[in-house]
Amino acid sequence: MIQTDRLLFVKGKIDLIIDKVREMEDEYRDEIQNVHPVYRKSALNLVHYLAFRSFDIDELQEHLRDLGLTSLSHIEAHVLKSLLSMSSILNQLLGQATPERRKGIISFKKSEKILARNTKLMFGYKSKRRRTRIMVTLPETAAEDGDFVSRLLKSGMNSARINCAHDNKETWGKIIQNVRTISEKQLKSCKIMMDLGGPKLRTGSIKPGPKIVHIKPEKDVSGNVINPARIWIAPPDFLLPDDISIHIPVKEEWFREIKRGDIIRLNDTRNKKVDITVGGRKGNGREGFCFTSAYVSTGTELQLFGPDKSEKAKDTVGELLPIEQYIPLKINDTLILTKNTNQGEPAQYDEKGKLIQLAHISCTLPEIFSDVRVEEPIFFDDGKIEGVIENVNRDELNIRITYAKDTGSKLKADKGINLPHSNLNVSGLTPKDKMDLEFVAQYADTVNFSFVNNENDVQELLDELESYESSIGIILKIETQKGFTNLPRILLRAMQTFPIGVMIARGDLAIETGWKNFASIQEEILRICEAAHVPDVWATQVLENLAKKGVPSRAEITDAALAQRAECVMLNKGAYIEKAVKMLDRILRRMQHFQKKKETVLPRLEDAENLHLSHAKFDI
């Protein structure tokens, strides 16, 4: 009797959900009909999933598990089929007639095929031994160095991302030509993805410091030099390699005199004698090594000596870039965010330590001043500095700092600003985006659409692409609270074209939604995309430490393993990007033995019958 009561309770809940599914299907019939025929069944399934999730199903799932039935935890891609199948099973257990089957709904196998097709449309063919694609953000180096692009392709890159916020059309064109030419030689199809910058809310400029470089060799805890500082010596117009941060510019004719083993001698700004040993070629310049800490300024005299200590030539240091300045901030400090474009400055004090001028800095989108309110939070530099708005007027915001490092944080120019609780009326395509889109529509396979907040933003992009008679793919970057809130409507509008995808832009999104909330929100985006059979991209800071410093952290290895749940994983550029691509390729190939989307896979454990565990056969 108790078992029958439980079966009847579960059956009643399932029937209620099915009724809601049909009700919402009727309610949003127009939106479903307006999508491209390729996506019609997927749009229908998305609406079904939202109907399912409009119920609190915790209790239902608990009863299903107690009955030994599936808990409907992986229902996303085939909602109505799963509900009707469960209803049929319950009818049989209750001895009732099985309801008539509904034709044309998506089954488990069909949903897999649809997602695989949509993923192929967006990202091209998968790698031979890996299901999840890898997207790599290409640096400017890729415009000139074909071997670099070739190595990335061989290491596992499936899509090449170009960020329109950097470089120019000439450089983009060279990168695209390199990728297409080398892909063809390797018999691969690498897709070109181009990011539109979108409306960037960032800090403005700060008054520059002196034109000096600080040479710092690596030292141990006792102060002994364990690695020399690496310096790039080249004429001023040559491009600095990604893995060296110090460039000493010299005249081209003097540079031609430099040979391996020579010594460059100088007196730094403190009149300290410094020697730089010349090494081999590095790009278009030469690498130098210095075991002494030094401060070198524009105009410093350089003497070149051969290995035999004979003087060869003299020169002076060319024009150096000014030292990047910053505004130091501590908790309870006041920062003025201004509308004007004056260069920012730290707080100023007189000789007695009395404050005479508050720290101030401008922002790149002064139109937001009319949208913010007192007591709303504000975040700087990916959330490293937090504040609250204490006063708003036409020309400036007074901000009290509520979080910074104990020793103080450094706010620099061109750092992101987030106002997660403010109702900002800034979204859509910027004038620069519209200019860049002409190039993107002609040469890219896909446009990555930044800061999409609602379906109107999507429509604006569709209208612009139509004016260029372009049908390239669209990846919707979800990086705001509004974007997450409106994701279903955003998808239904975007489905009017194909192919489409979603990028989980985890940097801004985590700040916008709150660190404590982000994990569940990321999970929800994955579920919604699966319900719509839309491929998603796991992006921002994947193997960041490895790509930039050459050594991964334990946390980012785990993050990269979880990324296998997405259809594509994005890596940002860095000095060790090739190493990062190889590592990610291995992680993804190994993890696909244990995980498929959100579903756990249980491969046979060798020697388990002898109470031994081994994963040796999964080694990559």
UniProtKB/TrEMBL annotation:
InterPro entries on file: Pyr_Knase (IPR001697), Pyrv/PenolPyrv_kinase-like_dom (IPR015813), Pyrv_kinase-like_dom_sf (IPR040442), Pyrv_Knase-like_insert_dom_sf (IPR011037), Pyrv_Knase_brl (IPR015793)
Enzyme nomenclature, EC number: 2.7.1.40
Gene Ontology molecular function terms on file: ATP binding; kinase activity; magnesium ion binding; potassium ion binding; pyruvate kinase activity
Top-level enzyme category: transferase
Pathway: Carbohydrate degradation; glycolysis; pyruvate from D-glyceraldehyde 3-phosphate: step 5/5
Pfam families xref list: PK
Origin: domain of life: Bacteria
Keywords noted in UniProt: ATP-binding, Glycolysis, Kinase, Magnesium, Metal-binding, Nucleotide-binding, Pyruvate, Transferase
Record carries keyword tRNA processing: no
Transmembrane regions: none
Keyword Electron transport appears in the UniProt entry: no
Positions of the Pyruvate kinase barrel domain: 130-221, 359-572
Family statement drawn from the similarity comment of this UniProt entry: Belongs to the pyruvate kinase family.
Listed PANTHER family: PYRUVATE KINASE
Name listed for the protein in its UniProt record: pyruvate kinase
